[in-house]
Write a structure and sequence with these properties.
3-stranded antiparallel beta sheet; alpha/beta; 7-stranded mixed beta sheet
Amino acid sequence: MARNPNEPTGSYHAGPGTAHEIGVMMGFIAVFLLVTAVYLVLWKIGNKKGAAKERERRHILHEKAKNSQDTSAMEALDMQVNPAMPPPNLPANVHISEHPCLLSKLSLLRSVNTNARDTKALIHEISLILGCEALGHCLQVKECGTDKTPLGHQYTMLDTTPSLTLVPILRSGLGMLEAFQLLLPHPVPVHHLGLYREPSTLQAVEYYNNLPYHRPLFTAAGDHAVDQEGRVPQTAILLDPVIATGGTASAAIQTLLEWGVRRVVLISIVGNREGVARAAAQAHEYISGGDAGEKEVEIWTGAVDEGGLDGRGMIMPGLGDVGDRLFGTVGK
């Protein structure tokens, strides 16, 4: 009998069935999950070891500061060496906003998914709310002549007093500057302070300062300081989005008080409780240091986080590095 030419000459083997393919896929998934679990365990062990080394390093720095009687360094390091220390009560010159819109915008600002453009917008909007609250408390109005409306009716002109200057701390304070410039009825001087935290001790180091070199002298009759160049504002509005250890804010406040202003109003978006309390105490410390004349420090903030600081001195939960987030340099 003749063989069918279409009949296959070799033996036929059926391919793997669906059950076999599912089994292979589940095997790969099981291996992936096992590797992931091992990685997480090793990561946690390494993280604990790193945290232990960091605590030991800070304890050594604390002992060195203690032996050298450097109280400011001890206060900053105590926040990490003794995280279980009870938080201090905030003094009366600290004001925490309860505005619902601010709190809602702050929750958006905290998110890791908020990009640089939205970060800038949220900081601007939060600063507007904080600015309304703070300026409404520290400014007054005074009559400054008369004018006429378009219908020809005369009315009394009003202006704000005392005069003031805006002082953003570089870089992140620049994100708050425009909001205050929009709120104020007239342009005011803007001075800049550049400070960074030394990584090992978390102490503030000044790298830029464009305050005038002269120290202003106050007049007894007016609410302004007067020097040979003209009028110097009595109040400085200090802009710094985050108060962590309080070292940078305290150094900036001290610089402004030594320059000659009578009142420093610090505006921040979020702060750590210990750092805020440390900055709020600067006026008392400055007066007790022997300077004549009354000095005032006020702090206005959107929130005070209770999570403490991590090993790098960053607030938990906080906002991250606001300067990096504003200018798109995250990961540097």
